[in-house]
Amino acid sequence: MGNSKIIYGGKVLMDLTSDTVTADKLLEGFTAHGKDGEPIEGTCTFDSDTTDATAAVAEVLKDKTFYARGAKLTGTMPNNGAVAGRISTKEGVYTVPLGYHDGSGTVGIDDAEKAKIIPANIREGISILGVDGEMSGSEGMKPQSKTVTPSTEEQVVTADAGYNCLSQVTVGAIPYAESPNSAGGTTVTIG
Q1: Cα-flanking dihedrals φ and ψ of residue 111, to 5°?
Q2: Which domain holds residue 23?
Q3: How confident is the model at residue 110 (pLDDT cuts 50, 70, 90)?
Q4: How far apart are CA 24 and CA 160, in angstroms?
Q5: For range 49-55, the mean pLDDT
Q6: Using alpha carbons only, how large is the chain's radius of gyration in Å?
Q7: Statement: residue 48 has pLDDT above 80
Q8: Is 119 inside a domain boundary?
Q9: Pair type for strands 165-171 and 143-148
Q10: Residue 61 in domain
């Protein structure tokens, strides 16, 4: 049993009886004496004051532990590793998921959509995503030529089935005819 209080000649030379040091509060590798006077070997592995730490569990990887504000905490941030995303529409966006990313993930245009971005599908003079167009606008055209005669009724002239455009529309002259009438004059017929 150790000495925790020493009095000599009525004078207190040492008094450990009020001390609060315990092995778990004394840093590992240090020794002291407890209030009973017995030697104590430190077991505490804390090496810094974490009371002013600002990390939150959502900012530390899931299942990883850390110390902050005097407590051992466990992270909740998901480890997404290499996340990959695809955009398949003009208005498409990729929302990056919350969490850690290892830097090797990619986001790109969907392969089916990328295959459509070729010079033959882009009008000449236009560039889309670095691909210059070569299409003149007349590829695959099957034109039709038509002749119409004016009338007093509105006419809509369109290509017949099997054609996709009109190459030419010829509008004939308005019919005009004169003929003698029974009154001795001339009858003019227009249309």
Answers
A1: -55, -40
A2: 5-41
A3: very high
A4: 95
A5: 85
A6: 47
A7: no
A8: yes
A9: parallel
A10: no
